Amino acid sequence: MDVTFWGVRGSIPSPGPFTVRYGGNTPCVSVRLDNDELFILDLGTGARNLGTSLFAGPFGKGQGRATVLLSHAHWDHIQGFPFFGPFYVQGNHFTVVGQTRGEQLLDRVLERQMAAQFFPVQTYRNMGATIDMRGLSDEGDLKIGGARISATLIPHGGTQVLAFRIEADGKTLVYASDAGYDKNGPTPDALALFQGADLLIHDSTFTPEDRAQRLDRGLSSLEEAVQAAFRAQVKKLALFHYDQDYTDNDVDQLVARGRRLLDDKGARAIAILGAAEGLTVHL
Amino acid sequence: MRVRFWGVRGSLPVPGAPTERYGGNTSCVEISTSSGTRIIIDGGTGIRRLGKELMRGEFDQGKGRAHLLVSHTHWDHIQGLPFFAPFYRDGNRLFVYARQRDDQNLRSVFASQADAPFFPVPFHKTRADVAFRELLDGARFEIEDAQVSTARLNHPYIATAYSVTADGAKVTYVADTAPFTDILFGHEFVSGPALAQGKLSKSDRAKLAIMAEDVVRLCTDADLVIYDTMYTAGEYQKYPHFGHSRPQDAIAVCQAAGVKCLALFHHAPDRSDSEVDTMLAGARALAKEQGTLDIVAAYEGLDLTLGRG
Predict the structure, then answer these.
(1) What are phi and psi of A130, to 5 degrees?
(2) CA-to-CA dists, residue B24 to A123, B4, B9, B117, B280, angstroms
(3) Most A-contacting residue of B21, B49, B75, B239 (CB-CB within 10 A), to test interface
(4) Deepest in the core among B90, B128, B187, B204, taking most CB within 10 A?
(5) Euclidean distance between the first and final Cα of chain A, in Å?
(6) In chain B, which residues have pLDDT < 50?
(7) Would you list the DSSP string of B113-176?
(8) Residue A147 is inside which H or E element, if any?
(9) What tens digit of pLDDT does each residue of B39-48 get?
(10) Is B182 helix (H, G, I), strand (E, B) or coil?
């Protein structure tokens, strides 16, 4: 299983010289199984570069298939949808999995974004590819191709987001962007989903100091990310969804602080990295 | 008059090393007059950093006032607004201007951007006093000491060009628009790249000719024209139905209108910094053959002073 980061930034894309190393695109992560099956976690602006990279293969010929897993529909997690090239190629087939029931997901997340006043394509029906919607609440756990996918709702301020666990090729990846817990930290449901993962991609928007000023945002700091990794005994933690104003140097420090926090807990065995655009983690 | 560029990109923001010099934020231009009138054209992602800067002054105390002219409501021209900090401070006054629509009032178009499930803070929780002014094609009005004129543009779902005159200087913003030759855009979806050249009806051709005249008039004697030059000639052949122009179109309008300086603007997301350099060099060579138009390629941070400061 290969996990590649295409967008790692929270809230709004953040171009400029200070974000060149980690990247300024909003969340998108691709997961390629050993049998070549493709899963895509969220469709922030990073999805545009992923789409471009896929054109060389079957997606350029209208023979591609992939499953898209959407954590939630805040802009930074869907704004790459209209710019994901493979959606415009007839013959490609996508299943989009999200938190609301199928028809509602289609209408609320995709169709309203494509409406004529906002985007020239006017409706997703003008895009070409076949797009099926599956609401997770309809199905519970999913078996898709060679992967078993479980999802759990976790808190995100006043709302909730889906965290996804993908088990395939004898490995486990968990994606928990936009997790934002109350003062008790990661919920039991969240920890159960994260348990023993080979890689946990966890929200780590803020330093603990910045989070204390912005509790209403419903996002995690480095501390919650480390706590989640430690309590769920994961093997590797990827910090993710950085604040739009954090520079590359700020993120370097976030990662270094995370290492120290893990060491202080005696969790030297848990690896930590800062998710960066273009980085692939092989599990 | 001072003109500052906060976002120069079209379609969607493109962070990364290839766009470091010109910038990856979507469209946003700030115009301020010597008496302090503040006009912002378009609210792409560039407006976020403008908002942060404004919060260092009177907007932080809730005493700020700004006028936002919106060319049209495609995402790349409004997607920064929910992140514009002055909206979230009591007392600030913001006036939003855009073309009147038949099907939906302006407030509801903007408010829907902040609806659940898309954004955590609903528009009615915006703290500033926000007033919407709907414009008819060709509207002319005053904003404090500035005179504003408008013209309809040739773009899917229709866009508006603005000229702002103050301090003895004139700047005209022409984005987004296709050339006025091949396709007449309106509210219908235009699906294919087939150029309509030679197939335009007489009445469509006449409408485009009037639109072109109005745009030239809006640019006449401008010190600066900011123009949608998203495409190279080759790209335009492939994507005429997306509604954007080439440098040659902007140069033709500017030369017909006696413009001093043209800023290439709304760079394509795939255009790297060195490709913008190449486009600029090509445009300068083309303009030199035919006259004395100055040309720059707009970049984030470009700061121009026109007329009386």
Answers:
(1) -85, 125
(2) 26, 15, 6, 26, 17
(3) B75
(4) B128
(5) 5
(6) none
(7) TT-TTT-SS-GGG--SEEEEEEE-TT-EEEETTEEEEEEEE-STT-EEEEEEEETTEEEEEE-S
(8) strand A147-156
(9) 999 999 999 9
(10) coil
Neighbours of A251 (CB within 10 A): 23
- Tell me: the pLDDT tens digits for B213-239? 999 999 999 999 999 999 999 999 999
What would the two tokens of residue B281 be?
């060099």
The SS3 of residue B33 is coil
Structure tokens at A32: 């390629």
| Strand ranges inside B155-267, DSSP E | 159-166, 169-174, 224-228, 261-265
Which residues, numbered 214 to 233 in chain A, qualify as contacts with chain B under a Cβ-Cβ cut-off of 8 Å? 217-218
Q: How far apart are CA A177 and CA A275, in angstroms?
A: 12
A47 and A38 in contact (C-beta within 8 Å)?
no
The Cα–Cα gap between B254 and B261 comes to 8
DSSP single-letter state for residue B180: S
> C-alpha dihedral over A238, A239, A244, A248, to 10 degrees?
-80
Distance between CA B145 and CA A139 in Å, rounded? 61
Distances in Å between the Cα of A131 and the Cα atoms of A16, A75, A99, A206, B222 are 34, 20, 16, 35, 48
The tokens of A147 are what? 């992967």
Helix (H) or strand (E) holding A165, with range, is strand A159-168
Residues of B with CB under 8 A from a CB of A: 9, 11-17, 19-20, 23-25, 45, 48, 73-75, 78-80, 82-83, 101, 104, 109, 112, 116-120, 156-157, 187, 189, 191, 242-243, 269, 300
Are B51 and B85 in contact by the 8 Å Cβ rule? The answer is yes
Edge to edge, what strands does the sheet with A199-203 contain?
A142-144, A147-156, A159-168, A171-176, A199-203, A236-240, A271-274
Distance CA B154, CA B249 (A): 13
In angstroms, rounded to a whole number, what is the distance separating the alpha carbons of residues A31 and A39?
Answer: 5
State ipTM. Answer: 0.93
What is the torsional sign of CA A15, B161, B245, B106?
positive
Which pLDDT score is estimated for B198?
57
- Give the per-residue pLDDT at A101: 65
Q: Which residues fall within 8 angstroms of residue B192, CB to CB, at 6 or more apart?
A: B241
SS3 (DSSP) at B43: coil
Quick one: B191 exposed, middle or buried, by C-beta within 10 A (0-12, 13-18, 19+)?
exposed
Q: In whole angstroms, what is the distance from residue A164 CA to residue B217 CA?
A: 56
To the nearest whole Å, the CA of A124 is away from the closest chain B CA by 12
Neighboring chain A residues of B74 at a CB cutoff of 8 Å: 118-120
Position A133 scores a pLDDT of 85
Contacts of B91 (CB under 8 A, 6+ apart): B61, B62, B63, B128, B129
The structure tokens listed for B44 are: 């792409």
The model carries a pTM of: 0.95
